[in-house]
Design brief:
heterodimer, A: about 160 residues, alpha+beta, 5-stranded antiparallel beta sheet, 6 helices, B: about 475 residues, mainly alpha, 2 domains, 20 helices, about 0% strand, globular
Chain lengths: ~160, ~475
């Protein structure tokens, strides 16, 4: 009796393993082509006066290691007095998406502290910034067109 | 959820302790299992299913191996099946992307892109599952008949996400019966606060220095060395701090986990360093890979090959990237050189041996923290003056001078001095009130840092 139960459980669990692997390759977890999403977001945001950031800048500004993320794209303003910024990230896990969102919140807070008192326009832009987490994607935008960028981001997903 | 978070320290842990001690002894494993599953689901609800599957699968296979042995067979088929499924799961989540990328490059083979995230703790609980199956197969222990006790072994929250890797035979008896006392609870609390302080007060501040220094490519030899020194201490306090917290939490619930770090930066050789660093991982590889391969009771070339296999696997365990493969091979080669050439020298010259070990460990960490192999090589070139970078610059001097106290404290705390003094005084009971105040102070200070900081991930979570 015990043998039969063990053999049945083994077969069921192996069947479950096959389903799990099948699910991994054909599952419905939302993943879009990052390059397409990036170009759609970038088109609305615009790149004039902006420069693309590298992994070191990402780590410096957000404390995030780019190598651990599935994909990411960072644009910062060329002018030191401008606060326009775009960060689009595809994370490797839900937990990581949460961490990136927290890092973006901290970045917005730091920038606000930097400009508080002498840059009212910059502070207003930062107050209206968008931080949107749509697991596994995270968007951070500081721009006059932040809401439009957010719409493009959500549409792209 | 991480141990060094306000929600864990002030909500989750007190509730679990309360539920655990209020529950009848028979139900305590169940309470801990439930708490562990909630702890895991907090960050990664989607991967809870994977953990539950792992628990059920290994539970059944363990019983199957035992049953076959009772019937006079050896149960090898079930062991192979169990280990294969465990490794396939680990491989799918951790190594699939790496494999697909390299097959694509080498043979232009295009595997489907599945972009899987690595479930937290998968590397740790897969190794624990394999340890269980191997221990049952080798009759070091019987199969666990209680699904709750087995589930607790796999998912126990104190060591679930970053170890130490507990071998089943070491904890089997404690799953059935363990003792709790105020003394043990107090000792656990001391371990926990010590680990928390290591992580929050030392590792996080060292991490800030490292981040600042490496925000751009190092511009001088000095800057590169300051960066690598900061990381060398950061990774030690980060990981050993986590392990201390895990050991402390275990004690609070009556479990005794083995020590995972034993002052590795005091080692006088690389061989000794690896007897003191991440001891549970080294023990696992020794027990389940190195010895089955023949260990050192084989010919010299075969022994060298065994070491290289074990260290390549150790490197790969840390991450699916060529950096980690090179890092593992680096240690494999160093251990071979020490074993056959340098052993007597390092034993006779302990101080020089320690300096040489620290230097080699620091060089090794460059492969660890660099995002790519080429950036690691670039960093090493700056460290050893192989570029046009000057010897010193303002940035290097600034970070060296402003971090001197932190480096000195880090060096001191990486030796047995502080804990030796505290431990001796504690046992003698002479200055208990002073030590109590010290631990209370460390706890309050760490909490203040936690409230201020929003982002303090553990380095070893990604493994």
């Amino acid at each position: 009796m015990k043998d039969v139960m063990l053999q049945t459980a083994k077969i069921l669990l192996l069947g479950l393993f096959v389903i799990l692997v099948w699910g991994i390759f054909h599952g419905s977890r939302r993943r879009v082509d990052f390059a397409v999403l990036r170009s759609e977001v970038q088109e609305v945001f615009g790149t004039s006066g902006m420069k693309e950031g590298d992994a070191q800048l990402l780590r410096r500004l957000y404390g995030v290691n780019g190598g651990e993320l599935a994909n990411w794209y960072l644009l910062t303003a060329e002018d030191n007095m401008a606060v326009e910024e775009l960060l689009l990230v595809e994370c490797a896990s839900s937990e990581q998406a949460g961490q990136v969102r927290l890092a973006a919140e901290k970045r917005a807070e730091t920038q606000k502290n930097n400009f508080e008192g002498y840059g009212p326009e910059q502070v207003q832009l930062l107050d209206n910034c968008v931080i949107q987490e749509e697991d596994p994607y995270v968007l951070f935008v500081v721009s006059e067109r932040a809401q439009e960028v957010k719409t493009a981001f959500l549409k792209g997903l | 959820m991480v141990f060094s978070s306000i929600v864990f320290i002030f909500t989750f842990l007190p509730l679990v302790i309360l539920a655990y001690y209020l529950a009848p002894v028979k139900l305590r494993n169940f309470v801990l299992l439930l708490a562990s599953l909630i702890f895991y689901a907090w960050g990664e609800p989607v991967y809870l299913f994977l953990m539950l599957y792992s628990i059920l699968f290994n539970y059944v296979i363990g019983l199957d191996i035992e049953r076959q042995q009772e019937k006079g067979r050896n149960g090898r088929g079930s062991l192979i099946l169990g280990v294969t499924v465990n490794l396939l799961l680990l491989g799918l989540f951790k190594y699939y992307g790496f494999l697909a990328e390299n097959l694509g490059r080498l043979f232009a083979v295009e595997l489907p892109d599945v972009s899987l995230g690595l479930p937290v703790g998968l590397s740790f609980y897969t190794f624990q599952s394999i340890s269980y199956l191997a221990d049952v197969y080798r009759r070091k222990t019987g199969g666990q008949t209680s699904l709750i006790s087995f589930g607790l072994y796999i998912s126990m929250f104190p060591q679930l996400v970053a170890g130490p890797i507990v071998q089943y035979a070491d904890i089997d008896a404690q799953l059935k019966k363990r003792f709790t006392s105020w003394d043990l609870f107090g000792e656990g609390t001391r371990y926990f606060i010590g680990g928390l302080a290591k992580k929050v007060l030392l590792a996080n501040n060292l991490g800030a220095v490292f981040e600042a220094v490496t925000a751009s490519a190092p511009q001088s030899v000095l800057t590169a060395w300051v960066g690598v020194a900061a990381y060398t201490f950061q990774i030690y306090f980060d990981f050993s701090g986590y392990s201390d917290m895990a050991v402390g939490l275990g004690k609070m619930f009556g479990f005794e986990f083995k020590e995972n770090f034993h002052y590795p930066y005091c080692a006088r050789s690389v061989t000794e360093f690896w007897r003191r660093w991440h001891i549970s991982l080294s023990s696992w590889f020794r027990e389940y890979v190195y010895i089955p391969l023949g260990g050192n009771r084989v010919s010299v070339p075969r022994h060298m090959l065994n070491l290289l296999i074990v260290w390549t696997l150790t490197g790969l365990w840390h991450g699916a990237s060529w950096n980690f493969v090179v890092w593992g091979l680096y240690y494999g080669v160093l251990l071979i050189v020490e074993k056959y050439l340098l052993r007597r020298v390092t034993e006779k010259l302990p101080l020089i041996g320690n300096v040489y070990t620290m230097l080699l460990a620091a060089v090794g960490w460059v492969f660890f923290f660099s995002p790519t192999l080429s950036s690691a090589i670039g960093y090493l070139q700056v460290m050893f003056g192989r570029t046009a970078s000057p010897l010193t610059d303002n940035m290097g001097m600034y970070y060296l001078l402003t971090s001197l106290l932190l480096f000195w404290l880090s060096w001191l705390c990486s030796t047995p001095l502080p804990s030796g003094i505290c431990g001796r005084q504690w046992q003698k009971g002479r200055v208990k009130p002073v030590l109590l105040l010290l631990y209370l102070g460390l706890f309050l200070l760490s909490t203040a840092y936690l409230i201020h900081d929003t982002y303090n991930p553990f380095l070893y979570f990604r493994f």
